[in-house]
Specification:
alpha+beta; endopeptidase fold (from Nostoc punctiforme); two-stranded antiparallel ribbon; 2 domains; Helix Hairpins
Length: 404
Amino acid sequence: MASHRRPRAPLPLSPARRRGIGITTVALASVTLFSQLSQSPAHASPGDGGPSDRPSVEEVGKRVDALYREAGSATQRYNAAKERTDRQRKKVDGLLDRIAERADKLNDARRTLGSYAAAQYRAGAVSETAVLLLSPDPQSFFGHKHLMGRLTDHQLRAVEDYRREQREAGRERAEAGAELAELTASQRRLAADKKTVQDKLAQARKLLAKLTAEEKARLEKREREREEEARRKAAAAAAERERQRAEAERRQREEAGSPDAGTGTDTGTATGTGADTGTDGAAVDGSYAAKAEKVVAFAEAQLGKPYVWGAGGPNSYDCSGLTRAAWREAGVSLPRTTYDQAEVGTRVAKSRLHPGDLVFFYDDISHVGIYVGGGQMIHAPKPGARVRYESIDHMPFHGAVRPA
């Protein structure tokens, strides 16, 4: 990137003003992006009411889950605002560099005009033409045709060069100003989304802090039981899909009049098509299967790492940060947010999932995981949790895509 060079003569965009724009940009970009979510909040003072005024453990659990969901939605808005802000900041920086370069060109054009005027002075002439060429703003003379007509071809070209550079400098300053205003607005949205996430998480921590040790243990047990139930359902669903696949293959062999599985009637690599039927019988080509293998291997290597909102690795992740990092390992660039990732690649039915597919949840598409087969996914669940296996039936299923 070019440096912001100091103009060698006064310009409408002075070096101090130019540096001020750059400093403003840096200041805007210095918004703190992340906060430590693991810090223990101060315990809330007990209420005046008796035990009957306190919500039950189940009610607290439901409210905390709802707050985490709301925080998850706000996190995706935050991710989108951050990505947009980063792009705008790069654009503004590029415009500032171009303005600095344009200032040098404008000064060069002005010096050329000055050299012609100086030549007239050395010849002992102080004409209106010399005044025109030496003027700090020759623009005011451009309307005087009788003056312009006295200039030589070289002088006319010098004047036109100056006018062109002046127009471009004005255009680029205006563009930089507009982009800087948009950057400011994006930074405000970024800060607002960040505050929303922090407020939701703070409310959840406050609720949890009011629980006794026994109530916290009950809540943790409830969470474990819910996860185990989801795993049982996933295992049963996977077993049923496998039974149906085996039954379909048996009928296919019977219709072909051969008891052998290698008749070429199966969908898969045995047919010579280079397709892989996958864990749940969803046919994919060999190229996708190879990429998906890298994606799943990467996701498995992240198991146990903490969820942190807005994080994209390598030490912590939010849900879309994990999926993006995993597919980057396979050479595929995904957008940052869940709702943008849901638009990438090919849509896949739940019954046709293959390891590596992205699975999305909730009506607002605020959560995503990586399907690994058998009704399971790897995902970064929520604050306080770590990257883990989970049933895809654990949350309301929205849809799935095959990114490549």
